């Protein structure tokens, strides 16, 4: 499983990318809205100049024509832009056209396995099931990853599964075990993945022994 970073914040993206583990970036309109004094397009230019992997940029239009118009403009910014499209009938119409035009897509707001299968069959490059938001309403987000992974394996579907709406490190481990190709992770959770008290204790003990050597 690969790691993407789920943010539009440049400081977080730079810090995360420097760790050498980040293969891509996902944004959404809520994340972009938190960023002040920068246009969406300029932020995408900054991100794509740093990160060579997939950078998801979401369309705002709700009709296929509007999504196609917005998506084609966003795709001109850099070759590694992936157009993020909501899981609706209009969204999938746009995805099938983007797919024929060679523009990569990430179908977002996936909450059940049929939605993922539909998106894949429309030609989506990625599907994004939202784990945390399912857990929030008492459903099992991770179970959805297992189901989508099984279906895609049984039917030899190449669309990649991005485990999204990740809230804690356990989501990351479980998403990997259940076959997600990618987890897109907020900066805070990415940094939590490094933590183990025995690592800190071990470094402390090594340093103490080194400083007390004869
Ligand atoms: C990523 O593609 C999603 O937009 C994001 O993971 C949503 O996360 P949230 O449910 O914490 O807003």
UniProtKB/TrEMBL annotation:
It comes from the Bacteria. It is found in: Cytoplasm. It catalyses: D-sedoheptulose 7-phosphate + D-glyceraldehyde 3-phosphate = D-erythrose 4-phosphate + beta-D-fructose 6-phosphate. It holds the Pfam family TAL_FSA. Belongs to the transaldolase family. Type 3B subfamily. Transaldolase is important for the balance of metabolites in the pentose-phosphate pathway. This is Probable transaldolase. It comes from Anoxybacillus andreesenii.
